[in-house]
Amino acid sequence: METRTLAMRNLRKILGFFCLWIMVEAQIKIPPETVQQWASVFSVELQDFTTKYSGSLLFQKKLKDVESIIRIVDLNGADLLRDYSEGIERMLGSKMKSVKRLAESAEDADLYHEFNTSLQFDYYNSMLINTIDENGNYVELGGEFPLEENEHFNNLPVNTLQSNIQVPTNVYNKDPKLLNAIYNSEALNDVYINNFQRDPTLTWQYFGSSFGFFRIYPGIKWTPDTNGVVAFDCRNRNWYIQAATSPKDIIIMVDISGSMKGLKMTIAKHTINTILDTLGENDFVNVIAYTDYVRYVEPCFRGTLVQADLDNREHFKLLVEELHVKGEAKIKNAMKESFKILNEARMKGQGSMCNQAIMLITDGAMEDFESVFEEFNWPERRVRVFTYLIGREMTFAQNTKWIACNNKGYYTHISTLADVQENVMEYLHVLSRPMVINHDHDIIWTEAYMDTVLFNTKAQSLLLMTSVAMPVFSKKKETLSHGILLGVVGTDIPLMEVMKLVPRYMLGAHGYAFLLNNNGYILAHPDLRPLYKDGKKLKPKPNYNSVDLSEVEWEDTDEMLRTPMVKGETGSIILNIRASVDKGVRKTYCETDIDPDRRKYTQHQAVIRYLQGKEPDLECDELLLQQTLFDAVVTAPLEAYWNALMLNDRLESGVETAFLGTRSGLMRIMRYAGTETRVAKKFLTPSDKDNLFTIDHFPLWYRLAVQNTPGRFYYYAVNDKGVKYVIATTAVTVSSGERTAMAGGEFHTFAVSDLLSVLAVGLS
Where's the VWFA domain (predicted)? Predict the structure, then answer.
């Protein structure tokens, strides 16, 4: 003890000399050779100390003993990617088949249904179910509707035997047209259940009707908004809009002449914003304000179309709010400008290369504008013109209606703010007619989004998902030429489920997978951070679902990666990138999410039951389990080695924990110090603890070991809320012939103060 105390004093003196040498111009000079000697002794003592208590040499020896039976295989990135993409294709293909079955069932039900104006039909209204009146009776459309919490549906109370109906407040829930459509959609119940039985990984399935009701499976209790109303309208959702129409180029023309002052201008601005909300990232748009001259609300977008992604839509909304009325309206020049933009985009192969339309928002059209249509749009009428007459005045209604009817558009009259939503949506039905008539059942996939409508808790609402949807048409012969859209069917796919297919343990400590959509926007990526902290709450960032790949892969300055990916090309390139930490849930040892009876199993329990033959039909990763068992056998002697050290009376003070991690996810841990004396009580982060048996991620200590020279220890200090300790980490490799592969990492923790005293013994 005296020697140790003396050594500690000596070390403090040395540290004092260092500080004196660095901070002031000292009178006593320490020779460089002496400092070099101290560094050498420090290095040797530290290496011996960590090697002894980690057991890394023993692990390396045990691997050497089994080298003759080991085969190291080079992993081909292209093969891994192909297997992953095929897995995604099978998964998404299954969802598309489910949606197709729903669409076929809905169309057949409508085909054989005769409209009944006096139909009396009670359905389960999701707002009213299980509601009792003052007399103890269920309210009309309320009825008893059993609900039970279901882990597969985010622990929400649901009814997996029945769907139910949500109707927005602004739609009369007993309207004859609505009742007939709801009655027709009852046929979907059996298909919902059958789909879920075929594919237990399915989440929400739904049908959004063109009449406004929303049938969802499994049935749920709908919670009204904070003001007591139900503003949710399925027809405003991206999955509905994208499925109901094809991509489109839109020019919004708004009259800002003096006659539009007051409430008219307020309604016009709201109409523009509502139109913008119906657009998605596959659409293109521009906004023109006109009086006696043409004004682009964003001068930078003069003469062109811009992608209608969230950033651009929100930018337009801000600029529209700044519009002020003045002057006299001259529609002719603005209409010419709009046609020129659309025609030029079509000629150059720009924009959506599909539907094109002009949205005219005005309180009246007085000019002679027929010559403009003769010059730019007739006789082909490639551009549809939709007109919105603003205000209660009907003086110029005929002219405004003529414009729409003679250009394959639609005329609506908007006199109040409450009229805006319903009237704007009419243009979608018109644009869907060619699809309906041609029976083009195009399946669409939405961008990644967080659904905050159905879910109230953080865990539920902040899950990124995508939706697959498909339009439902009327197949009745008498209305076939009218192109009637009945609605849209769809289902949600959490992107977490897609990322589970990634063979994470095969990618290496710094490898990661990511997903893009056709516009180059990220669906899943380690560096996608869609949330921000607002006080204690996590909230989605405004543009969380329109983050381009170039914003996270900064080194891809020439878009060598992004461009071929967006074009759907196959190949490989070499890029320098920043190391990423992927937090997405990854492939597990055994799939327990599909069968409800197995969801209670942890991964540890599932593996044991599978290996013991109690659950032979469990879907498990055989290769991963084999690697885990191999690691368990080879690393078993470390337990005896660590125990022998712990029982030794000469155990140095300061060493606390030794632990081993392998790429298969196996961990062995030895506590040299008791809980009462241990400093590093939380050397495993909460994320590490949650994912030790899920191959979710490689912890920091593993990644640091991998990127350093095998056999050499890397040391890093941790300061956990004032508790300071050091983690030492090294990589252990295995060889076969001339090939070498990473086998695992050895690590141990020790307190900083005790480390200094241990090393002081070597320096005295």
Answer: 249-431
Q: Give 117-176 pLDDT, tens digit per residue.
A: 999 889 999 999 999 988 889 999 988 999 999 988 888 899 999 999 999 988 898 999
For the chain, the domains span 1-28, 31-71+632-763, 94-241+442-495, 247-425
- Mean pLDDT calculated for residue range 352-379: 90
CB 243 within 8 A of CB 264: no
This prediction's pTM: 0.74
Handedness of CA 474, 477, 480, 484 (dihedral sign): negative
For the chain, helix (H) and strand (E) counts, in that order, are 23, 28
413 residue type, one letter: H
Which residue type, as a one-letter code, is found at position 36?
Q
Task: Determine if the peptide bond prior to 710 is cis (ω within 30°).
Answer: no
State the helix-helix crossing angle for 56-65 and 32-54, rounded to 10 degrees.
Answer: 60
Cα–Cα distance measured from residue 745 to residue 60, given in angstroms and rounded to the nearest whole number: 11
Distance CA(290)–CA(655), nearest Å, equals 77
From CA 43, how far away is CA 433, in angstroms rounded? 77
**What percent of the chain is modeled with pLDDT above 90?**
38
Nearest to 586 by CA among 635, 646, 534, 526: 526
Name beta bridge partners: 470. Answer: 489
pLDDT band at 341 (very low <50, low <70, confident <90, very high): very high
pLDDT digits over 142-152, tens only?
A: 889 999 999 88
- pLDDT greater at residue 644 or residue 17: 644
The CATH class of the 31-71+632-763 domain is: alpha beta
Tell me the CATH number for domain 247-425: 3.40.50.410
Q: Is residue 4 predicted with pLDDT exceeding 70?
A: no
What does the pLDDT average to over 653-679? 75
- 94-241+442-495: CATH class: alpha beta
Same fold, 31-71+632-763 and 94-241+442-495: yes
Q: Which helix (H) or strand (E) holds 355?
A: strand 355-362
Is there a contact between 282 and 519 (Cβ–Cβ < 8 Å)? yes
3-state secondary structure 77-140: HHHHHHHHHHHHHHHHHHHHHHHHHHHHHHHHHHHCCCCCCCCCCCCCECCCCCCECCCCCECC
